[in-house]
Amino acid sequence: MGHGDEQGAVPGGSVVAGVHGEVWFEAQCRKSLFSARCPKVFRCPACAGSAHSTFKRDGQIYYQCTDCRHQDHLARRHDVPKPPSCRSPSEFLALHLVTSAKTNLSALELKRQLGVCYRTAWRLKHKVMHAMTEREESRKLNGLVQIDDAYLGVSAPAARLGRGSENKQAFLVAVETDTDLERPRCAVIEPVRAFSNDSISDLGRAPIAAKRR
Hints:
By secondary structure, the chain is an alpha+beta fold. It has five helices and nine strands, in the order βββαβββαααβββα.
């Protein structure tokens, strides 16, 4: 299958039209995930040995430690939050599509872009979102942090206007910026019942790191 072919699958290995027109093969996905989890050298999670061999079982590449014979695979490693298993380029590409979308990417749109069934697209999306949630739970904002309020909702003919509208959800947004206030580094967004001193205090206790003197 050439680079100009449509996205699809071929016997012996899936091929998915990748980012910027490139083609992602399973070996490329596996290599990228291996580099992310083992940036320098493979380390056995049981004995920390580096010598290993590989074999394939049930479509998954396994790594077997030469010293203790422990078997492991990338989808079972615990050193980073679990992304989708790298069994096919479709799963690896789902990571990119969901995390790089400026607006929320629906499961229906993910289904269309990956060429998979809706159930598979829904499962992949929620798997990625769960990994993102786990990654962000421990985040702490440092340095210069600015807090502001925001609303998210829809307009309705019979609804009240302004801050008291029942169709709007209140949020507090905390943004860590660089010292010259030109670039935001990261942000934390928390839904609240009302904009009160208690809500702001709760936001400060959780994601904002205490200043050390």
